[in-house]
Fold each of these.
Amino acid sequence: MSNNVHSEEFEGADVEEAIRKAMAHFSSSREELEIKVVREEKKGLFGMAGEKTAKIKVFLKNK
């Protein structure tokens, strides 16, 4: 894990959407980010309650 103290968390319908949000927030490419998946998305059974978004924690890598 990075020695950076500052990190941000992002959520999305899936992990890729959360990563795109992080890239836009940091104005950085995916290669410049250190990404830890906190939670994978979870679909509700037959469209019922229980759906959860994906959540990631992102650090900006040192250049």
Note: The CA atoms of residues 43 and 49 lie 9 Å apart.
Amino acid sequence: MLFMCTTHAQTETLKVLIPANVGGGFGGVGIAWGSVDPVVHDICEKQVCKYNVPNGTTVSIWRTGTPLQYEFDYWIKNGEINDSQLLVFQMLENTTVLMKENKIFTGVPVIIVPGIFGSWSTEMFCNDEDAVGDMEFNLKMAKGLGHVKNFIIPTQWTVDPIKGIYNTLHESLTQSGLRPTFFGYDWRDNIQYIAIGNPNNPDSPSLVDIIDQVKVQYGVSQVDIVAHSMGGLVVREYIQNHYRGDIRKFAMIGTPNQGSLDVYRIWEAGHFSNIGGTVDVWIKEIVLENMKEGCENSFMNDAKFVRKWLPSVKQLMPTFDYFSYPTGVTEDEYYLEEVEDMCYYNDYLINLNNDIDTLINQGVDIHIFASDNKRTLQGYESNNQHSLDNCNRKKWADERPVEKFFANPDSGSAGDGRVLFNKSAYPVEDMPSFSTISITNINGKHSSLPGKVKTINGIVNFLKEAGNEPAPY
């Protein structure tokens, strides 16, 4: 039998005591016994040490150092735990004891989930060599991206290799004694498939897969998750509809819990003009052209391509009323269209938010980080009256906007430049139970939030604070 345990705190040392009548050792580890009072030794200086323990041996395992916490991630059967600081195990068969020590670990592992456009792979271009080569050339020639002059698009989904907006977060969590793991995924796919797997593409990464991988890698039953933007909706989908009890804490950063107006133009017409700064817009437009080249053809209508290949975009559409049309009664009279009466509306997120109590009641500790100090789009206006007869249009089925309305910081209800604060911090307008979830206001634009010092410090404190400890494996 294999017996395993892992340590938690940075300054602790795991020690093992094996009775004098048990001889031997393993691999020059330096364990010695043979006297009436067995000598206690540090488990080893290696990452993993093994000890062969015969049938009937009682093995005592404990930790020293500060803080004196006697917690273990998991115990494989044939061991009994008592309530004292000394953990005693009666081995029921000839057993190999495997001690695995990680000296920097102070909490359960953390999975970082990026947002839309937050992962790259040659699969974005259907692995077409010409399209991939064209994209790499375009990036090489781009101004302001000197760090990717020799950039090679990875074959596996990799978290933001272009701008590295999650690198500071990852490095800071590591330096704080946590164990972060990136989750790179196909952000084009349906959020449901990103959460649990795409039956039509079983090799595509899923949240379930990375959770299972991390649990096995670190020998734990639960993980913590930090998710940015759309990544938060992926995690919500899992918790609300497929949960297996394996998330301890969940931090959302700028998640569009009620959608974002930025994606309206993408879904309705294939236009990326609202998304980010000049370089960001240029990258996304070139990505779209090269995706079309690799996956369909360069002459395909942009909106048609987006609706076929990027279904996740529709799942980011607003769930609140945001589009005004002329009533036709008087020149200055406009009607605010109900979102569910539009040709394209986000039925996915509406349904997810209608079941928000499930998110609250699953026992996951949740904290939201959002911004309200950036001018953020909150509405559109058109010159034409909306009609469901236009729903078959190639683009602008819900009319082309001619005027934009913004929430400004001085109004007290702005956002991060892409997601309104009150649409990120609250999944629904009137949800008292959601007030039990902590919210931290971070000043910054959407893409910069994961790397903000206040965000990182808040996340580290949230993940390390006491309470809601993980269950044994």
Note: The first strand starts at residue 2 and ends at 6.
Amino acid sequence: MGDRNGGKGRPWGPLRGEDDALNRIAVLLREQLERAGLTLRDLQDRLTPELLNDQPVPSATTLSKRFSGEGLAAAGTLAAAVIGLCAPDEEVAGLLEKAQELFAESRRNRQQKLPEPPSVTQPGMDESTDPPSLMAEQIAALQVELSAERAARYQSEAAVTFLLGYLAGTRAAKPERPAAVLALPEPLPARTAAPSVAPWARSTSPNPIADDEELLHVAGVMHSLDTDGSRFARVIRTAFDKVLDGPLTGRYELRQLGKTEKTYLSTLIEMTVQREFGLADGTAMDYLIDGVEVDLKFSQRGLWMIPPELNGHLTLLLSAWEETSTWSLGICRISSDLPLGRGNRDGNRMLSVRSAREGIHWLHQQAEFPDNALRSVPPHDLEAILQPGASRLRMAELFRRVQGRVLSRNVLETVTMSQDSMRRVRDVRPFLEAEGIAVLGGTPEGVRSARKLWLPVPSYGDHLSVRLTRAGAAHEGAPTLLLGDELWTVARPEDPVEPLPQLS
């Protein structure tokens, strides 16, 4: 590799990435910039927010830092844009895969550096556990780091997923690379509600398909059935939990599924949507919505495979991104006017969020659905929680290590691998109360206690754990809860461990 910025600028500075993998990504990006004969200034002129998935174009200083490896861990979108702009068309796919592998290696390197918490033996328990307080500040720091890791993985994987899909479809038919080739399908653009247009009639196109009365009518019906998106969010979470089958398998995220199970997930989503909204069976399509035949396609990445028989029909396009716990729902009419990718051997063609932006009317964009809490637990904590042993020990470890968060019944059943999680909660409460940890359920008393302590409120079947301490002068202004004849409050890391009065 040359030693100058694009071969005609200032010499490259030293590599300063957090690890060798990030430095190798920086070298890869430098090589592509040099091959294209560009300087960082030239690159900055060519980058646009659309190429960066609606993110602002970095300054020259920021670009220089990224090309040295600094801050590159969370710059997967920028890396994909550079490769797409600078590399030859026939090499883009391979280089994206190489970059993704290096991003994954860097994540593994950083995860190995996470500190291990100390262990002590708890009275009455037959396995070693962490101190009851769990040092909340360390947990918060680890959760922040984990969020950064997930964001980095999300950005790099999203870039590769979309660009490889594009290369497999539309690029072969369009030799010239359009400006939107690097615009990732996730996350979708933020919602910008037009004051005079109903949300269900909104389109991402500058020229909405206003003449398609059936499309707008079906959009209106679906919007009226779920104005805030809460029902679709519940459908997605329910379907995910069913296919993961945590109580039987112990699985908690979709990447643990096999290929056949992932295929079944789409079918399960279609059936769950039909049951949730009481939709009638269609003759040719999945549903009959107020007399109109409508199909539904589900995707985990905003890339839908469209079979030939959908041509001319209305299709609900549902996508859900587990990495960000967001989902989107749009409706379009499949036609030859849509920029579909080349067909596979079955004649199915790919439709992407970006390529079909002029034909999709969005009902909901980037709405949230409930995440599985286990996905955001730091790896070393998760390993301790899921270690082999009695289910009550795993349950107790969960409540020690994941405090202040509502844990759904499904999470509890996944950890204990049983459908009798309520009994396990009763079993571990005495041990946890001896460590100062209260377990609040979705009962009226639990809800009142959570509200008095300014904590998230659990629903029926859900639980939340929190370490408490007697309220003193150092806790002035903090919310309190009366237990027995004393006031208690949420413990700080430095507060001593104090057994609770009997709560069960």
Note: The chain has three domains: 5-171, 185-368, 376-490.
Amino acid sequence: MGGSIWRLVVGLAIPEASAWFSAWIPAVFHVLLASFVLTLAVYNLLEPRVD
């Protein structure tokens, strides 16, 4: 997740960066997906099981 945020920052801060850095839609999608997966993992780790 940190790599995608770094990619967004580099793409916004350096105008002459390569096209890979300026493709912000995949980076935003990856940040959102990683946030969802991490939230789901924390929920499943902390939620007590009901049998």
Note: The chain is about 75% helix and 0% strand.
